[in-house]
Amino acid sequence: MGILSRYLRFPRPRTFLYLMSLRTGVEMVSLSVIFNKLTGFFGLLAILTGVSLSPLQLSMYIYSVGALALISFLMPHIRKQSPFECLALAWFYLLDTVINTAFTSAFAITWFLAVSADNANKGIPSSAPGGAMVDDTAGFTSPKYNVSKVGVSTTPGEGITGGQEAVAYGVAGAAAATTTNRSLAHGVGIEESIPSIMVVVMLTMVRVYFILVTMAYARQVLRQHMNTTSSAKLHLHTDGVSEGRSDNPFATGSPAGAGWRGKLGRIMVTIGESYWLGGQADDDWVKGLDGRFRASKMSGGPPGTLERERRARSGTGPPMPKLNVGKL
What's this model's pTM, rounded to 2 decimal places? Predict the structure, then answer.
């Protein structure tokens, strides 16, 4: 049962791509978010050029600008290892992935309907999100003349100069005469749509891995903060005993639990409390935080040296023997 629960628990990466630390990985993820949200800023600038935006586009651009400001505020706290800001960054990236996936799905549905409408020689349904904007800018939907071939007929011109008069006419082919119904299933079933779907799915899986990395780093920062400020110090884990649930760093009465930051911190920790506060002390920072608990002088000592020095530092060791100094 212990082995089964170990493999079924929520993933907790210890490195980023098995090459870099979690802190470096979270910084790289934050940079990718900044580059992604810059499109919202330039999208709003497009309004100055007279481009008409759909309500879906406008809401996405406004959200991107707000997200850009928030990630720019939280990113410097990654190196500072601030518990509240790192936890907020993890939750923000999770919510941003959900919102970004919703926007991508909406635009993907409209695009597949546009492709289906092009094959059916019809316009995009008005109920599609952002359909009017795509219909105006795609360039291949709602044709003015529904023909598959254009012919030119010429006749001799009148007058001394001569010349010819040309008349263009359209011929409806079999593809234009027999149209199919526009639908999402028809657009997805087109051969060119499969690579686009595969790319979207792959990018979504990458973002899921980035979520695990940001949450693992926030958990690491939280547990480091809890063990450096609580009464249960790190030396209690030197015997290799599994730890129980840690104290909430944003609990009422604690320094980090005051004000609105404390209330918001308690809410963020409450959701998934077993992940943030529970588990085993298997983090890298527990095994050796800044090299403070890996002193070489302790490794070569006789058995019991580490325990005696720990008791001596905590003041729980045996009393020192009294020295019997004789008279000279």
Answer: 0.70
